Amino acid sequence: MTAQAGLRERKKARTRASLREHALRLFREQGYQATTVEQIAAAAEVSPSTFFRYFPTKEDVVLQDDMDTRMMEALLRQPPELPPIAAVRGAMRETWDSFTPAEWEQLREGGRLSQEVPEIRARTMNEFARLINAFAEAIAGRVGRSPDDVRVRVLAGAVIGVLMSVFLPEHLQDEAGLDLDTNSFGPESGARIDEALALLEEGLPL
Asked: According to DSSP H, which parts of 1-79 are helical?
């Protein structure tokens, strides 16, 4: 990557982070429903059309945090000789260590909105499905198989199941859909995820 391309990527990352930061602040101050895309864009000093280049909908500014992007990038950096689940564990640890306390607070706030706002809540399962596809792509690249290979997709689904087991409380569903345990969003959750992945790596012995 050239220096100019790197500068463009950093600028895009700053704009994306600014939009999300201002959106979460406005949601907190005046409520999700009362906040418009135009207000978010104005607070971040960009146009509404720029907002939509980064986030297709207002819901996406909550749902599309940096966690999955960082996980995929970290997974690509894992040594190629590592088995898939060991590589995922390493990527998870690297990802969890990369977040600042302020970023963890944003993740917790996003989790709370995902539970409380019906429009966002309704898309929670779509996000889990998207993550399965992303992990399938990354794992397939490591093992030289197609992302559609049943073994690859089962493993990707199992990894997402681990995340759900940590981030969803015991009452997985109610009449409105899935409930996220927002108290689970934090650095301390990394140890629980690693423990759960270790069980998966061992073949889930009981």
From this structure: 3-30, 37-43, 48-54, 60-63, 67-77
Neighbours of 74 (CB within 10 A): 21
* Domain 1-56 CATH (choose: 1.10.10.60, 3.40.50.720, 3.40.50.1450, 3.40.50.980): 1.10.10.60
Tell me which CATH homologous superfamily contains domain 65-201. Tetracycline Repressor, domain 2 (1.10.357.10)
CA distance 197 to 171: 21
DSSP state at residue 103: H
Q: Are 156 and 135 in contact (CB under 8 A)?
A: yes
Query: pLDDT (tens digit, 9 = 90+) per residue, 15-33?
Result: 999 999 999 999 999 999 9
pLDDT in tens, 119-167: 898 888 788 889 999 999 999 999 999 999 999 999 999 999 988 887 7
